[in-house]
TrEMBL record:
Keywords: Protease inhibitor, Signal, Thiol protease inhibitor. The lineage of its organism: Eukaryota, Viridiplantae, Streptophyta, Embryophyta, Tracheophyta. This is Cystatin domain-containing protein. InterPro entries: Cystatin_dom, Cystatin_sf. PANTHER family: CYSTEINE PROTEINASE INHIBITOR 5.
Length: 128
């Protein structure tokens, strides 16, 4: 019985090490999207993501953007992460409303890669 427990423990440790090595070495550019779809812009998750993007951009660029409306949200489901592309209307103070594009990653809390935030803002730019 003890011998079987040691074998199982060894196999688990070996598979865990292989999983960590593969996840660390796998370039994100090679992660293929398995599914891409439009999300409902009124869903609580999309609203949360949009507010997060605005707040992060305000921290980064020391601006005071305010979310006016979410125009579109596309979710790409990858092997390891999910990404979201948002089209937002936001305004800076009393100035005119402008269209912005935001790209975020949803950070999943894996045992080998603990997440600090639920989302990570990849880019935020003025739409052309």
């Amino acid at each position: 019985m003890r011998f079987h427990s040691l074998i199982i423990l060894f196999l688990f440790a070996h598979l865990s090490a292989v999983t960590v090595a593969v996840a660390a070495a796998w370039p994100e550019s090679e992660l293929l999207a398995t599914m891409s779809h439009e999300r409902d812009v009124k869903s609580p998750k999309v609203i949360k993501i949009a507010k997060f993007a605005i707040n992060e951009e305000n921290k980064r660029s020391k601006t005071k953007l305010k979310l006016v409306r979410i125009l579109r949200c596309t979710e790409n489901v990858y092997t390891i992460d999910n990404s979201f592309s948002l089209e937002l209307l936001a305004k800076h103070g009393t100035r005119t409303t402008k269209k912005y594009l935001a790209h975020l990653f949803e950070t999943k809390n894996y045992w080998f890669r603990p997440a600090t935030d639920e989302f990570e803002l990849e880019s935020f730019e003025l739409a052309q």
